[in-house]
Amino acid sequence: MLAYVVRSIMQGLIVMLAVAFIAFSMFRFVGDPVVNMLGQEATLQDRAELTERLGLNDPVPLQFGRFLMNAVQFDFGISYRQGRKVSSLIAERLPATVELAVLSAIFALVIGIGLGVFAAIRRDSWLAHVVMTVSLIGVSLPTFLIGIGLIYIFAVELRWLPSFGRGETVKIGWWSTGLLTTSGLKSLIMPVVTLGFLQLTLIMRLVRSEMLEVMRSDFVRFARARGVSERNIEFRHALRNTMIPVITIAGLQLGGVIAFAIVTETVFQWPGLGALFVNAVQFVDIPVMSAYLFFVAAVFVLTSLMVDMIYLALDPRLKSGPGAK
Amino acid sequence: MSSSPGAAAAKPEPSRSMLARMRDSDIWHSFTRSWITMIAALITFVLIFSAIFAHQIAPNDPFNLASLSLLDGGKPPFWSPDGEWRFPLGTDQQGRCVLSSILFGMRISLIVGFLGVVLAAVIGITLGLVSGYLGGTVDSVIMRIADVQLTFPAILIALLIDGTMRALVGTARSEVLVFWVLVVSIGLSFWVQYARTVRGSTMVERNKEYVQAARLIGLGRITILFRHVLPNVIGPVLVIVTINMALAIITEATLSFLGVGLPPTEPSLGTLIRIGNEFLFSGEWWVVIFPGLTLAALVLAINLLGDWLRDALNPKLR
Fold first, then answer.
1. pLDDT tens for residues B69-106?
2. CA B280 to CA B301: how far, in whole Å?
3. In terms of CA atoms, which chain B residue is nearest residue A33?
């Protein structure tokens, strides 16, 4: 079991190291960082000074080491375009993205599991067929089309919901939240649905197929033979056993939520990290790009590590490990 | 994987025509049994056909500045009272015909998607063959890279490669470059799946007698890999190509929608949706809804075809 944990952590570290190297190469070799920071008109002396100060004359491995040290402390230098520290830019945008992503994940999990169980138990009802067809369309629709469709219906035609921004936010310490005001909550609805929809359909289909599988297994048949009520079988026996793969996939899908948050934030002009990143790509703002990359990689590695641990807690078969059968 | 469906179809007496043999095949049978697949195939065919012949079909030329008139701007589709038959699906603010823009945009979307998938397949198949055949250090290096890349969603990788390449080549200068930047971004984001599949089957093929025989008569590694192993591992790749085609089109559309894809002067469906989105609030819904529906229909149809192909080629499901 310990070996399993250690291996997961090692794998995470290797991924982080690889990502850090890519981020470093982007900063160091894509364009000239000195020219990017000082502009074209700087004097030769200014340039030489900055080159020295950034340590660009040192050997590359040493530079990479320094980059790593800074990255661990989340210091990515100064944005080329905005002239501010990248870390403070990210801290400013973080709450918007976290609130959006977490709510979307909860939305996708709750509705996805609910619909999946329904589609499995009442698999021949017409409503289950409708749900399955809609989910097939949902898998194919690009995220931004869903967003635009929602905006057209609920903001342009019906005028029920705001079409962009976070609404009013309240500051709690450095964290700005939209969860405490009516306009903030209203602004959240459409982005959350847009971002959660793809995950919802994936989770729903997974829960349905897993559930159908489990319902055919021997222990369910024995439970039936013992006279356990159908409801009890469905929720106490079947659903529990479907949860293991669902949690794995849902955890890994969190990465998808973050990636597609870029699209959702652009559609709804949501002031989060994704919008920051898209702007950075458009204007080739390398420090922001590499910081975002590093941040996202860290989130990915941490979630997959967490998924591994939950897995371990849920599935007793893994605890003994391959050595001790 | 040597028993591909093509081999199964070729089993009856060779004197019969290809058409008759095709009608007898399992694939054709499962195709005609599924209504949804046939509709999806029809939609895909019609869309691809109209994209190829966009120049002949399109009622107007949306890129010819001389024929554009601001007086035609903002016209609704033909069924509303202000609509005109000249512009069946209406026009945007500049007086560009929406239907014609969609036809040309779809053409670009399809070309970028197709080239991206082909590039991804070429990279993936080559690396998969090499990795599976050589094994050892080469194998573990390639597979570790694949693992790291697989941790991240393809769209993120594509965005990142797109951004980096834009910085390297300075895309502000030329539209042709933007086009190829997109193709390469898509190619580099989707190769992993091919590499893994091909590596798996190559490792099986590597130890078979025909490979040993080829090695024995002194053929070079490259000849063995590409002339002898490749034809035997290519089957499953075709399914991935179909499913990836839909993904590649979505990826291109998303990048263009985010403003890091094709420019408005050479719009793909994604660019059209991005432009149209700005007019949504002035009530001109048709400028964005029609390209959106086209994209959705195209992707859904290709996805359905891919799903069917996967099931039809899977011997376990027969």
1. 666 666 677 666 666 666 667 777 776 777 888 888 88
2. 26
3. B167
Core vs surface per residue A229-244: b (16+ CB within 10 A) or e: eeeebbeebbbebbee
CA angle (B180, B183, B187) in 5-degree steps = 140
SS3 A122: coil
Q: What interface predicted TM-score (ipTM) does this complex get?
A: 0.78
Query: Nearest-CA residue of chain B relative to A12?
Result: B148
Of A261, A254, A258, residue with least CA distance to A307: A254
Whole-number pLDDT of residue B123 = 93
- Which residue on chain A is closest to B252 by alpha carbon? A142
Q: Which of B106-115, B202-211, B261-270 has the highest mean pLDDT?
A: B106-115
**Between A142, A255, A281, which is nearest B159 by CB?**
A281
Q: Please, what is the Cα angle at A42 between A39 and A45, to 5 degrees?
A: 140
Closest CB from A141, A156, A258 relative to B280:
A156
Q: Which sign does the torsion angle of CA A139, A145, A150, A152 carry?
A: negative
Whether residues A14 and B283 touch (CB distance < 8 A) is answered with no
- Residue A99 near residue A180 (C-beta atoms within 8 A): no
pLDDT tens for each residue of B150-202: 777 778 888 888 877 777 776 555 667 778 888 888 888 888 889 988 898 88
Q: What is the pLDDT of residues A237-266, one digit of tens each?
A: 778 778 777 877 777 777 778 878 888 888
Q: Is A31 on the interface with B (CB under 8 A)?
A: yes
Collapsing DSSP to helix, strand or coil, B239 comes out as helix
Q: What is the pLDDT of residue A118?
A: 87
By CB atoms closer than 10 A (0-12, 13-18, 19+), residue B234 is middle
* B164–chain A Cβ distance below 8 A for any pair: yes
Residues facing A177 on adjacent strands = A170
